[in-house]
Amino acid sequence: MAAGIDPASPLADPFVSDLMTRCARFLDCQGDAESRQQLLSRLESINDPRRERYLQLLAVVNGWPAPESLQPVLDWSVGALEARMLRVIGAGLGRTGTNSLKVALERLLDAPCYHMLEVQRRLTDAQVWLDALHGRPAGLRELLSDYAATVDWPAAALWQWLAKEHPDAVMLLSLRDDAATWLRSARATIMPVAEPDWHDDPDWASMREMDEAMFAAFDPHWRDDAAAKAAYDRHVETVRREVAPERLVEWRPGDGWEPLCTALGVPVPNEPFPHVNSTAEFTARSAARGPHLMPGLPNG
Q: Which of 56, 89, 164, 231 is the most exposed place for a label (fewest CB within 10 A)?
């Protein structure tokens, strides 16, 4: 802090890592998420102006030197911890307005939102997600450390793990009107990327593997319409059943800003809600680029 380091900056990472390591030992925490939450709660309880005034008064009464204020240090530490926690976790599948949500959440949070686009732009991410899909999610902590929110696949496939890692995050379930509507859009756009002949560039091998694992986790028989629609309905019901009602926000593309702003406690922007990446836009871009979907085509 003395060096003027922004608490959200990567330069603050060593401090936060050391703080969490010490916290885990002191509080006997069992994991990163537990350590982070307990430490944040402890710092917020200590960072009370009444406590500082009491210590100052105690020093005056007893003739002690005035204590140095810890509030700047505590404010910085709380900010550094909060900057490394997701505020919104999208549990909605691709083709439920997730690209529009990415744009909207980045506007509301003034911070990046992770979407399938990030994987397409940085193909090394695919291996981290593939590991997570195979039961090794620890790499996601560093991968998502600069993001305030997630929407779309592949993060939606790991929503349960993310929800435990970030227990204060809003859980956002984006929806279409019904499973049939969702499937028509998905079949016309994103599902072809999981087919073996989607892209023959070796640099995209991990992306293909990730997509295959992601759709297999969704349902092993996702190529069958009845199975895919049943999997969509099952996914929605699982989210509704497992997420506490006060934490869950359900959102459809026509809902606009209000549900998001209410959940986040921020004002509604005086501008239209961004509606981007319709099926027609997606297929037009795909046709312009050739028979295969190519890098830079967003999912949701």
A: 164
Is residue 210 a contact partner of residue 119, using CB atoms and an 8 Å limit? yes
Boundary-marking domain end, from 58, 82, 106: 82
pTM score > 0.70 for this model?
A: yes
Q: What is the pLDDT of residues 80-139, one digit of tens each?
A: 777 778 999 999 999 999 999 999 999 999 899 999 999 989 999 999 999 999 999 989
pLDDT tens profile 178-201: 999 999 999 998 888 777 665 666
Residue 141: what pLDDT?
Answer: 86
In the predicted model, what is the mean pLDDT of residues 51-56? 86
Same domain? For 31 and 137 the reply is: no
